[in-house]
Amino acid sequence: MGLPEVLIQAFWFMIPAYVANPAAVIFGGSRPMDFGKKLSDGNRLLGDGKTWEGFSGGILFGMFIGGIQWAIAYAFLPFLSFGQAPSGLFIILLLPIGSLMGDLLGSFIKRRMGIRRGQSLLILDQYDFLIGAMLILVVIEWKWFLNHYLVGDLVYGLIFIIAITPFLHRAVNVIGFKLGKKDVPW
Ligand code: CTP
Ligand code: MG
């Protein structure tokens, strides 16, 4: 596999994790996941920016897109296959869950630092979901992660993903802001 294929593949596998985030913004509702609870530091556990509707809608949408990707790869593009069912489909289920759990962890950390909902925190805002998606693979599907992101030249794909993620994040948030879906363009 040449370098272009490596980079395309690395990006392709992360799509279910990537799309979960903007989907959470679109599905985001009014039921905060922390039920308004504050911790002893006086700050919210997660804040009003993390809702059950956003979390569940984002996860289901990521799984839906992943399912379409799985079918496309199966029918036309074997090099983009997540793997045979059921294990390939299992990866697709994990990615959006990890992504939005990382997003929750990011908000939890921000609240503990006294950073209010919607205020930016560089690096964490851009990477929390990617860290979540990768971590869930490392923990539950280490072999898959190794064989798709670490072995040989595939590591260039991992570097590529890490390099483009802040730009993707920024672009998507500017779009969300322009559409009136986000209060701030980050
Ligand atoms: N959203 C949601 N539920 C989630 C994630 C996101 O409802 N689990 C929606 C919320 O409307 C949120 C918006 O998507 O305001 C943007 O998400 P994000 O930038 O992650 O949240 P912020 O509002 O910036 O809050 P935080 O400071 O906690 O990141
Ligand atoms: Mg934010």
Could you give the count of β-strands?
0
What's the Cα radius of gyration? 17 Å
Please identify the structural class as seen in this structure.
Answer: mainly alpha
Ligands, ions, cofactors: cytidine-5'-triphosphate, magnesium ion
- Shape category: elongated
Secondary structure: helix percent: 55-70%
Kindly, what is the distance between the CA atoms of the first and last residues, rounded to a whole number of angstroms?
36 Å
Query: Low-confidence spans: pLDDT under 50, at least 5 residues?
Result: none
Q: Name the helix and strand elements from N-terminus to C-terminus, one letter apiece.
A: HHHHHH
Average pLDDT, all residues: 96
Summarize the main sheet: none
Strand content: under 5%
Compute the number of helices.
Answer: 6
Task: Produce a short descriptive summary.
With 186 residues, the protein is mostly helical. The protein has 6 helices and no strands. The mean pLDDT is 96.
Account of the protein in words:
The chain is an all-alpha fold and 186 residues long. Helix content is 68%, strand content 0%. The protein contains six helices and no strands. The protein has helices at 3-27, 52-75, 87-112, 124-140, 142-150, 154-178. Helix 1 crosses helix 3 and helix 4 (124-140) crosses helix 5. The chain is elongated, with a radius of gyration of 17 Å. Cytidine-5'-triphosphate binds at residues 24-25, 28, 47, 49-51, 54-55, 100, 103, 107, 110, 117-118, 182.
